[in-house]
Amino acid sequence: MKSLTSIDGFFEFFNLRRNAKYRQLNIDWISTFKYINADSSTTTTSFKALNIKSKKVKLLIEELLTMEYLQHCKPSLYQFWTCLSCDEIETFHHLWSCTHIIPKLTEIMEFSQ
Predict the structure, then answer these.
(1) Which of 32, 63, 68, 77 has the largest CB neighbor count within 10 A?
(2) Between the CA of residue 108 and those of 32, 33, 90, 101, what are the distances in Å?
(3) Is the dihedral of CA 111, 84, 97, 66 positive or negative?
(4) What is d(CA 72, CA 66) in angstroms, rounded to the nearest whole number?
(5) Is 95 helix (H, G, I), strand (E, B) or coil?
């Protein structure tokens, strides 16, 4: 029964319109969901684990809170905001390619190994 529920949940996620770009890619979904659920207990749920899982999913589907995303959701409020580090338009791609952020990201990756 649990497997059927998991499969049903996966297809519900997979068929969301915002996930259409993943349908053409060869993604190892088993490994992806193992990573997403790695911090979750199978018997209990904590707010910390839910928060971590939420961030992993937002990263996967490119919905981290960037200025581009906020401008899309509330254009009147976030009309002219840009990246705080370099003043360029802040997109999901920019989060990982901003020349001011790359040294910090590199340091984090080296520290975490």
Answers:
(1) 68
(2) 22, 24, 21, 11
(3) positive
(4) 10
(5) helix
- C-alpha–C-alpha distance, residues 113 and 103, integer Å: 16
Q: Are 90 and 68 in contact (CB under 8 A)?
A: yes
Q: How far apart are CA 41 and CA 50, in angstroms?
A: 10
CA–CA separation, 48 vs 31, rounded Å? 22
Residue type, 91: T
Rounded CA-CA distance 7/30 in Å is 11
pLDDT digits (tens, 9 = 90+) for 28-63: 888 887 878 776 666 677 788 888 888 888 877 777
As given in the structure block, the two tokens for residue 25 are 């890619």
Percentage of the chain with pLDDT > 70?
Answer: 90
Report the first-to-last Cα separation within the chain, whole angstroms.
Answer: 38
Distance CA 17, CA 20 (A): 5
What does pTM read for this prediction?
0.50
